[in-house]
Structure formats: structure tokens, C-alpha cells
Amino acid sequence: QVQLAESGGGSVQPGGSLRLSCAASGSIFSIPTLGWYRQAAGKQRELAATITSGLITNYADSVKGRFTISRDNAKNTVYLQMNSLRPEDTAVYYCIAAGVYYTNYTFDASNYWGKGTLVTVSS
Fold first, then answer.
1. How many whole angstroms separate alpha carbon 116 and alpha carbon 118?
2. Strand 91-102 with 28-30, pairing
3. 80 DSSP β-pair partners
4. Whether the Cβ atoms of residue 27 and residue 102 lie closer than 8 Å to each other
5. Half-sphere exposure for 30 (CA within 13 Å, toward CB)
6. Phi-psi region of 65 (alpha: psi -120 to 50; beta: other; left: phi over 0)
7. pLDDT tens-digit profile of 59-101?
8. Which of 9, 12, 25, 68 is the least buried, fewest Cβ under 10 Å from its Cβ?
9. SS3 of 89, please?
10. C-alpha to C-alpha distance for 74 and 90, rounded to whole angstroms
């Protein structure tokens, strides 16, 4: 089992910045893909960004050029730096771990989700 703990959400004015963090815990050897999804009120959950253990990144078109995803493999932690925030970025942001290699070298193909952290962009 893997537990994900997000932090860094909050309220910010349009044009502002926030940095989200998500730390994975458990008997983890490595996590192939970490990422962030978001869900605005009344809408479906959507991809924001993902990053592989080899640091290959993927972004939704709506956040390209404004958000930067990064990770610290040694700490099993993923970050999302969000700049030039817009009101339409307001959402609950969820961390995801897609697949896990445990320290006993078994592989778990499950997706693990954090509980989410709220980001509100408003003047």
C-alpha cells in the first residue's frame, strides 16, 4: 500500500503562484509515474501534468508554459509549481502514483490517489 500526502494549496490572486507537494510513503522502491490531476466544481477530474522516473513530463494544453512538474526520486515526492494562475485553475488538485515497485521487488499496477488539496484563484 502507498499513502500520498499533498500540501501547498490555498488561495491566491490571478497572476499569482503556488507550489504543491506530494510525498508518497510506504515500502516503496520506485514509482514509475507521478502526477497531478485536478477537478473543478461540477466538472470531471482532468490531467494537469505527469512525470516519469526518467523525468519525462507531460502537460495538459491548458497549463503548458505556466505549470512545471518535478520530482525527487530519493524522497518519492512530486511537486507542481503553478505560475500565472487564472480563475479557471481553481480546483481540487489530486496527486497520483501510477504503479509502484516495492522494496521486495514486486510491482503493483494500481493507481494511488491523494486526498486532494484545494487551490482557489480569485481576486
1. 7
2. antiparallel
3. 20, 69
4. yes
5. 9
6. left
7. 999 999 999 999 999 999 999 999 999 999 999 999 999 999 9
8. 25
9. helix
10. 30
